[in-house]
C-alpha cells in the first residue's frame, strides 16, 4: 500500500531502505514486504478495539483504544498474539487506508475513551506518527501509549519525543542465549536496555496520573514471568534496579499461558507455578521497588485473544 505523501521525508527514506528497527533489513517497504517483520509501508492492522485488560492506570474501567499491528520484529515462541505477529499472518487485503484507520479510532474516542495504545509498534513507527498527526488534524488529542517489546533503536525512540505520552515497554531477558532461543534476538538484552533508558531519559521514573488514577505521562515497565525462568526474572529486576531506578512503575505479569505453538516445548508447555511467581514478587519487594502492580495467578484467562473476532478480548 503506497501512501508516500503521509510520511515525513526522514520516515519516507527510512521505509525506502528500512533501518527502522535493530534488524536493519534495508528493504524498500514501498515496493514489498520482504523484511523480517513482513510488513510493507502501509497500515497492516489486525484490530482497532477497546481493550480493558491493560494495567489499571492504562485502561482503567472504561478501556483504551488499542491498535494491534500485524507483524513483529521478534519471533517469541510463546507470543500470545501469534495469530497476528508472524509475517505469515499478513494477507494481501489486510491493509487499511489511513482515513479508515482514523475513522475507527475516532468512533472509539467519541465514546469517551481518552487513550490510544499502539501495540507492537517497533516496526511501524512512521505509521504511528502518521496516525497521531492525523488524529491531531481532526482535533483529537488522546493520551498516546507506546506498548512495545523494547526491541527498538534509540534514535527511533528519540524521534518519538513529544509525540508519545506514556511508554509501556516490556523488558524480557538479560541473558543473550535465552533471548536468542526464545525470541531470535541474541542482542535483545542490550538493545532493549538502551531503548528503555532513552524512554527513561524522556520521562523519568514518575508515572503521572489524573484524579482517577489514569496515566497521562511517564514510563511503566512490564515483565512477564516465564515458567521455569524465575531466576531470569529476578536478574531482570536487578538490572532495572541497577541501571534505572527502583522508583519506576513496574508491572510484574503472571499471565503466561502456553499457546498451541509451544505445546510440545519442554519448558514453555505449562502455565506458571504460583511458587515461581511469588518468589519473583518477593525479589521485587526485597530490591525496593515501590510502584506498580502484580497479577492474580488466574489472570491468564483474561489474556487469550482471538483475532478472528471484531473484539479479540471479549
Write a structural description.
The protein has helices at 9-16, 56-59, 82-85, 98-109, 125-137, 154-158, 176-183, 188-203, 230-243, 274-287; strands at residues 43-51, 64-69, 95-96, 115-119, 143-148, 166-169, 208-209, 215-224, 249-253, 291-294. It has a single domain, classed as TIM Barrel (Alpha-Beta Barrel). It is built from 10 helices and 10 strands. It has 314 residues and is an alpha/beta fold. Strands 1, 2, 3, 4, 5, 6, 7, 8, 9 and 10 form a 10-stranded mixed β-sheet that branches.
Write the layout of secondary structure elements.
Layout lengths: L8 H8 L26 E9 L4 H4 L4 E6 L12 H4 L9 E2 L1 H12 L5 E5 L5 H13 L5 E6 L5 H5 L7 E4 L6 H8 L4 H16 L4 E2 L5 E10 L5 H14 L5 E5 L20 H14 L3 E4 L20
Parallel strand pairs: 2-4, 4-5, 5-6, 6-8, 8-9, 9-10
Antiparallel strand pairs: 1-2, 1-3, 7-8
Helix pairs in contact: 4-5, 9-10
